[in-house]
């Protein structure tokens, strides 16, 4: 018995032998820390990956790469066993039988890694939500191709549940019926416009929108309550809760930056390159009154380039860049050979991965030069 | 594709792990089942002696820095081999925790020959070859 092998009394001995079922089963040894072990025993963990992926192991919160560490030593595994022969041998001393069920030539180690979220975007973009029909209800006979439920996504995306939830939130995805969808930008813009028109019509304060009132007003325009709430959550933050005639209603404060950014993206989609002055003029014209666009809001979405006396604004969105550090830096240096820190920083914001700081990545992938002590540092490809 | 890794029993028992330098070389045996490897003896406070054939090894009990979970693959239908690099397995595969290892008996020294004391059935005994 294993416990007896480990707790073998002083001066007593055990006979170690290959068990009757030796070699009939294949065991994997997985090294874990106490925290992961606890979760493993209580709730279980999941190994995820497609045929072309490297498998990862996910806890509820984090994602781990699985590394195989081999050993040249002989490792015998002895399970607890009911078949103990406690008797006396010729010397009159107690002895124990220990049966080896398997040998091991190595074990698996876990290294925390970033979730692989690249394919999530691809999956959701297969079928964006473009129309609000039937109050968001699916037609019975509607084909389900390109639609993914939470269970589909947890199976297909190499990320923990918490990381998947965060990624869906970052992509502004919403669960409609059983399926997670990203909402088409033009549809969203139409909806946002209607909210602004209704706000003017009903004299609402954009910093203090009453959810119930907005939902009610937009029902007449055939927008479902769910999609209206989603729009409010995408462009604003939830404030306090109001109690009106025994009905609860949330207050929403629309976020200047998010709303302005939305309009900037629409302009940049029409034309990827603008003279800065013209862009700012057009941007101010299209954003709703009371909201002041500023060039600072475009960090990570567009770049300003000086060509002679003119400044040009060009679409360059962080969301279009690869997520793996090596690929990200390669794409960045393809766009520009030299980067100043202020321009570069927004494109590295989402790059913090476990065990890899931005500083370490800069050291690895870039060369930093600073012509004079007072001038800005320049980053070039290594 | 997902492979659940979980514990079927609720409270997994501790397994023992015995680690030797080198490899066991089996002589004259046709099958390993029930073949005796050797005799393990707890000699003093944290000293263990492992006699294999006419080799004697000395070792100690070591607590692992991190625990190790022993996983067994459960196939619910025709599955392929689980490779940690490539999870080309059907959904019906599950990894079940069958035990935990927290300690090992580590015999890291080279074996000492026991010339005088030959075991009763040398033909059925494996001998140890050091590296």
Estimate the helix proportion of chain A, in percent.
25-40%
Shape of chain A: extended
Oligomer designation: heterodimer
**Global structural class of chain A:** alpha+beta
- Main sheet properties of chain A: 4 strands, antiparallel
Mean pLDDT of chain B: 78
Which structural class do you get from the secondary structure elements of chain B? mainly beta
Q: Helix and strand succession of chain B?
A: EEEEEEEEE
Major β-sheet profile of chain B: 7 strands, mixed
Q: How many whole angstroms does the radius of gyration of chain A measure?
A: 30 Å
What does the overall shape of chain B look like? Answer: extended
Total domain modules of chain A: 5
Strand content of chain A: 25-35%
Report mean pLDDT of chain A, rounded to a whole number.
85
Number of helices of chain A: 13
Radius of gyration of chain B in whole Å, from Cα?
19 Å
The spatial strand order of the largest sheet of chain A comes to 3-4-5-8
Family (chain A): Belongs to the DCC1 family.
Keywords (chain A): DNA replication
InterPro entries (chain A): Dcc1
Protein name (chain A): Sister chromatid cohesion protein DCC1
Description:
The complex is a heterodimer of chains A (382) and B (131). Chain A is of the alpha+beta class and 382 residues long. Chain A folds into 5 domains: 2-113, no CATH class; 118-182, no CATH class; 190-252, no CATH class; 255-320, Arc Repressor Mutant, subunit A (Orthogonal Bundle), CATH 1.10.10; 323-382, Aspartate Aminotransferase, domain 1, CATH 3.90.1150. Chain A is 33% helix and 29% strand. Chain A has a 4-stranded antiparallel beta sheet, with no helix packed on it. Chain A has a 3-stranded mixed beta sheet with strand order 1-7-6. In chain A, a hairpin with a 2-residue loop joins strand 16 and strand 17 (310-315). In chain A, helix 7 (211-219) crosses helix 8 (225-235) and helix 9 (256-270) crosses helix 10 (276-286). Chain A is extended. Chain B has 131 residues and is mostly beta strands. Chain B has one domain (5-129). Chain B is built from no helices and 9 strands. Chain B has strands at residues 2-7, 14-20, 23-25, 36-44, 47-52, 55-75, 93-107, 112-113, 127-129. In chain B, the strands form 2 sheets. In chain B, strands 1, 2, 4, 5, 6, 7 and 8 form a 7-stranded mixed beta sheet that branches. A two-stranded antiparallel ribbon of chain B has the order 3-9. In chain B, strand 4 (36-44) and strand 5 (47-52) form a beta hairpin. The radius of gyration of chain B is 19 Å and the shape is extended. Mean pLDDT of chain B is 78; it is low at 78-91. The chains are: A alpha+beta (382), B mainly beta (131). At the A-B interface, helix 1, strand 1, strand 2, helix 2 and strand 3 of A face strand 1, strand 2, strand 4, strand 6 and strand 7 of B. Strand 2 (27-31) of chain A pairs antiparallel with strand 6 of chain B. Chain B: This is Chromosome transmission fidelity protein 8. Chain B: InterPro entries: Ctf8 (IPR018607). Chain A: Pfam families: Dcc1. Chain A: Belongs to the DCC1 family. Chain A: Keywords: DNA replication.
